[in-house]
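Run log, item B.
One chain of 330 residues. Sequence copied directly from the ordering sheet:
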Amino acid sequence: MPTTRRTERAPAPAAVSALGLRKSYGDKTVLDGIDLHIPAGSVFALLGPNGAGKTTTVQILSTLVAADGGRAQVAGHDIATAPAGVRSAIGVTGQFAALDDLLTAEENLLLMADLLRLGKREGRARTRELLRRFDIADVAHQRAATFSGGMRRRLDLAMTLVGDPRVIFLDEPTTGLDPRSRRTMWDTVRSLVAGGTTVFLTTQYLEEADQLADRIAVLDGGRIVAEGTADELKGRIPGSHVRLRFSEPAAYERAASAFAGAARDDEELALRIAGDGGLDALRALIDRLDAADVRAADLSVHTPDLDDVFLALTGQGTAAAPLHVKETQR
C-alpha cells in the first residue's frame, strides 16, 4: 500500500533573527548573547530598564553599530555581510523626531524621497499618500517647527515609510507624547502591521507593549530574561488579590477577624485578600462579609500586569519605571 506522507506547515519566516548577539563598550557588557526570532508581519516589543541595551540592539540590527559577536539577519539580509540590503529594507524612528524644522511637512518628505533616490513623480506621489495617511495633508505647507509633539511624531514616522520598508524599528517612539497622541501612534502601528509590515518596538510604557505586541521580550543585564505573549508573561507572576476598604474602624476590625489571613493596611482601613478575583471567589468573599455583618466601602480586584512582570524580572526596575497598578472597581 502506498504510504501517505504528512506535510508539516513550515514556521512563519523570520523578518528579524539573531543568535548570540554580543556588544561591549570598554569593560561594560551591554549585550551578552541574545537570541531573537521575529515573524514577518508581527509586532515585537523589547522591554528593559534604562541602560539595558534596547537602543544598542536596534542600532546593531539597523547596521548603525557593529556587533562584537553573534550573527543576525533582517529582511533576509545578513547585517554583517549585506548591510546595504538591510538598510534598503528597513525604516528607523528614534526617540526624537529627525525633522528639518526649517522645511515644511511636504518638503521633509520630498527630501527623504530624494535621499532614497526615488524618481520625482514617484516621490511626489508617495509624499501625497503619506500626508493623507498620517492626517497632516492640511498642514503640508507649514514648517515642522510649528508642529505639536504628536504631529512631529506622525511626520517622523511618515518619513520612515517613504521607502516602503518591510521592517520598522521604533525606538521608544511615544516618548514625551500626551495620552491622546500616544494612542494615535498605536493606531498607526496597528495599520502598518495589518498591511504586512513587521514592527520592532522598544518602550518603557508597559501598557504600550501590552496593547501592541504579539510577543514581548524583557532585557536585563545584557540578557533576555523572559519572552512570550503578554498573557504568558503575566501568568508567571503571582499576586492576584482582592482589596477591601472600609469607612469605619469597627467594620474594618470585624472584617479582619473574618479574614484572618488577609494583609492589613490600618491607615487606609483596607484588607488585601489573596485570590484570583473570579466570580466564584468573589461570591464566596461577599458571603463571608454578609456572615460577619460587614459592608465594605469599596472592593477592587488586582491582577498582575506588565508593570509587575517588569519589576519582578529586572534588577533595576524600581528605578527605571513607575508601578502603575491596574485595578478593576466593583
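Observations after the first pass:
- The chain has two domains: 14-235, 241-329.
- The longest helix spans residues 179-194.
Flagged for discussion on Thursday.
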